[in-house]
Amino acid sequence: MAAVTRGSFNALRRLLTQQYRRRCFQPQNLRFNRNLKPLASRWDRSPQMFGSRTLRTAVAWRGPIVQFKLSDIGEGIMEVTVKEWYVKEGDKVSQFDSICEVQSDKASVTITSRYDGVIRKLYYDVDGTALVGKPLVDIETESGSELSQEEDVVETPAMAREEHTHQEIKGHKTQATPAVRRLAMENNIKLSEVVGTGKDGRILKEDILNFLAKQTGAILPPTPVFHEIQTPGPAPSTPAATPMSIPAGVKPPPTAPKPVFSGKDVTEPLKGFHKAMVKTMTAALKIPHFGYCDEVDLSRLVLLRSELKTTAERRGVKLSYMPFFIKAASLGLLHFPILNSSLDEGCQNLIYKASHNIGLAMDTSQGLLVPNVKNVQSLSVFEIAQELNRLQALGAAGQLGKSELNEGTFTLSNIGSIGGTYAKPVILPPEVAIGALGKIQ
Amino acid sequence: MPAMRRAMIPLARRRSGGGTVYHDLGNLNLTFFASKKAYDRQRNLKVVTEALRRVCPELDVQATDRFDILLKGHHKISGTASRLSRKSSYHHCTLLHSADRSALSSLLRPSCTGIQSNATPSVPSPVANLTDHAPSLQWEELLEALVQQYNSEFGLTSALTPVSPSDESLFPGVGNMEAELRSWEWTFGKTPKFRVETQLELRDEQLAAGCSAYLHMEVKNGLVESCRMDIPANWLPLRLSSTLSEVLLGERFCPHRAAAALTVFLRSESGQLHRRLCNLCEVLLAVMG
C-alpha cells in the first residue's frame, strides 16, 4: 500500500470491472471518487495506516464504498435495537470481524462484516432502531479485496463454540481474553495487528501495552536490553517530497533520531466523589491544626497479638494491630473526652459525643472512605476485630453504606499499612482530632 | 436490589436478550447450542413440552408464539432468550420445577419507582412450578426425560454427561468470563439511558416539619448524567441543593457510590442545615435502591 504509482490507476479500473461483475454490488452503491489528485500529498502519511489513530485521513486513496445492509434476522423481524458498536468510523475491518450487536426482544445477534475495508459511516446510534434491509454501515473496500459468498455451514447439533473472544482474520484465529480484547477496543487497536506472545500466539495485556507504547512513543520501564522506541515518522524519501540535502563534507549524525513523544494531555472533569473530596478537604484545612508526634515501644503488643492471633482465627476473626489501637484510643478518650467532641456552626458550642465511633481510613473501590466502629467504649478488642473484619469485607466489595460511613467521632489512619513511618493527617470535620499510625519497625 | 443484597444473591447479566430471571436450584436452565442454520427455537421447545407430556401425560403444557411455555394456558413455566453470531447460535430457556416462588416474586419486583426509559416494558406473567401441578415429578426424572426427548428429536444417542461449569481445565478462561458477566461495567455500565422522575418527601424531625421536592435524574451507562432537585429555597438554600446535585454527577447510579460521595460531601457542611442535608441524602439513597 505504501508505494502508490501510476500503475495503480489501471489496478483501480480492473477492480471496478471485477466488482461490477459481482452480484453483491448494485451499481448505485458504487461511489467512485474520481478526484485522485491528493494522492501525492498523502504518500507521507501512508506508513501510519496500520493500527494508527489517524487512520481517518491516512488512506492513500478512496476505494469504492459499499452500503452494508442489515440482513434478515428471521422470524419476520423488521426492526432491531442497536445495542453496541464494536467499530467506529475510520476503523479498519476484515471480513468476519464483529461490527455491532443488535437485539430484538428476545434474541441478541452479532453482526459481522462481509467485506474487508474501512468503516466510513455508521447509520445508527446506540439504542437506535435499525431496520432490516436498510444500510447499517458504509464500508470503503480495498482494491482487490475478495468478496466471497458465505460458506455453507455444516450443521451440527453438537456445541459450536461461541466466537465472542475470537476473531477470524483471513483464516487465522486471534486469541485474546475478553479483558484484553476490551483493552484493545478502548485503545482503537485491531487485534490482527498485535503480535501475541502468549501460548499459541495468544495476545496478552502486555502485547497491547507494548503496541500502544510504540504508537505514542512513550518510554516503557527499562527491559534487560534497552530498545530505542521510535514512532513511525514520515517516509524519509519519496520522489514527491523534497529530498534531504546533506551539505558536502558534513557527516550525518551517527545516532538514530531522538524518539518523538507524541502523547497528548488528557483532561478529565472532576466528578462525584472526588468533587466532594475537594470541598471537604478545603473545609478541613480551614480548621487550625496542631500536631504531636511520638514513638512508642510496641514489643509487648507484638507478643500479645501473636499469642492471640491463633485463638482469634479459630473463632473466624482475623486479628491485626488495629483493634488494639482502636481500643486504646477509646480508653484515651475516656480520659480526655474533649477529643471526642464536635464544634457547632459558628463555634458557639462544644458538643461532647457520648459514643466513641472510631473511624479507620480505608482505601476502597468507592474511594478513600472512613467507616467507623460504633460504640468502641462498650466493645472488647475481639469484638472490635470482628466488626473491623466486617467493614473491611464491605469495603473490598464496594458496599460500605451510610450507616457505616456516618456519625464517626474520632479517626485513626494507618499509614504503616502502606509502608509509611510518619504522616500529617487531616482532621475530618465535624471531628476535632485524628491519629496517624506509622509502620511498626 | 436491596432485597437481593440482603439475601446475598449474586447478579450477572447474560449476553442474550430479554428480561430478568431468578434462578435457584429449582429452576432448570436449558441451553441448545446449534449452528446458525440449525437455529430453531420452536423445535427446541417441542423437546421440552414433549418430554413433559411423556413423564406427566396429564400436564397441559404449550409453547406460545412468543416462545414461552404455559401450563394450563396461563401459568408461565418457561421463558426464552437467545444469541446469534456469524455461524453459531444458542437458545436458552428456563423451566420452573420447584423454585422458591416467594423469593422470585419479591426479588423481581422493581425497587426503584419513577424510572422512565425506552426499554421494552417487562410484562410480568403469573408463574407456576411444575411441582405445584405435578407434585410427584422428580428432578432427575425430568432431566432423563429431556435427554431422551432431545435424542429422539435430533436423531442422536448421547448419554447425559455431568460437567462442572467452573472447571478451568475443561473450559479455559471460564473464570474470567464469569467475572466479566458479573462486573459492574457489564451488568450496569451498558444500561441504556433512563430517567428517574419522582417526588421526594423530606423531613426535619427536630422541627417536626416537612416538604416535598421534585427529583429529576438522567442516567446513561449506569452513570448519573444529570441531576436536578426542585427543593423550596426556605427548606435548603439553593446553593446546597445544587452542590449536592453536582456531587452526584458522574458517579454510578448506585447507593453505595452515592453514599460514599455524599458522606464526604456532608463533612464539608455543618450547622442546622446539616440535619436537613442528611435527610435529603437518605431520601436520595433510598431512590437508588
From TrEMBL, chain A:
Its EC number is 2.3.1.-. SUPFAM superfamilies: CoA-dependent acyltransferases, Peripheral subunit-binding domain of 2-oxo acid dehydrogenase complex, Single hybrid motif. Residues 65-140 form the Lipoyl-binding domain. It comes from the Eukaryota. It is found in: Mitochondrion matrix. Residues 175-212 form the Peripheral subunit-binding (PSBD) domain. It is an enzyme of class 2 (transferase). Its main location: mitochondrion. Transmembrane segments: none annotated. Keywords: Acyltransferase, Lipoyl, Transferase, Transit peptide. Its cofactor is (R)-lipoate. The keyword Transit peptide applies. Belongs to the 2-oxoacid dehydrogenase family. This is Dihydrolipoamide acetyltransferase component of pyruvate dehydrogenase complex. It comes from Ilyodon furcidens (goldbreast splitfin). The lineage of its organism: Eukaryota, Metazoa, Chordata, Craniata, Vertebrata.
From TrEMBL, chain B:
It comes from the Eukaryota. InterPro entries: aa-tRNA-synth_II/BPL/LPL (IPR045864), BPL_LPL_catalytic (IPR004143), LipoylTrfase_LipoateP_Ligase (IPR004562). Residues 1-158 form the BPL/LPL catalytic domain. It holds the Pfam family LplA-B_cat. PROSITE patterns: BPL_LPL_CATALYTIC. Pathway: Protein modification; protein lipoylation via exogenous pathway; protein N(6)-(lipoyl)lysine from lipoate: step 2/2. Belongs to the LplA family. This is BPL/LPL catalytic domain-containing protein.
